[in-house]
From TrEMBL:
Biased composition (Gly residues): 8-21
EC number: 3.1.3.16
Main EC class the enzyme belongs to: hydrolase
Protein's recorded name: protein-serine/threonine phosphatase
One GO molecular-function entry: protein serine/threonine phosphatase activity
InterPro entries: PPM-type-like_dom_sf
UniProt gene name: Orphan334
Source organism (scientific name): Zea mays (Maize)
Stretches the record annotates as Disordered: 1-21
Amino acid sequence: MSSRSGSTSGGSTGGGSSAGGGAAVPLALLLRREVASERTASERPELHSGLFSQAKKGEDFTFLKLECERVPGVPSSSFSAFGLFDGHNGNGAAIYTKENLLNNILNAVPADLNREDWLAALPRALVAAFVKTDKDFQTKDWSS
């Protein structure tokens, strides 16, 4: 796929170093740290989000969904998702990824998991969803 994509829990899953010069931290470790340091709702800071997008060639797309539910119909399982989809030499892959990646991520995680198990399954689900989205895009007649 000729699109670089970002999503809710983007990060590195391998070795190497980040652009800032530090060592890469596996996504699973970051998620475990988040669960371990979780605070009650009254102790959490209030977070706000916004979205701004400007593309010179019309190849870049953004995605922001504030009210995703890990368990449909259960508001306490809500989370937000965002993405930046950078099209190269066309917008086909960026548009396709924007429209399909989140659903592929959610479909790759078993629905009956509690929050901790869901977060633990998320790194593999992200990889599976990126691969599925890429393969599905390659079978379409879209060009990028």
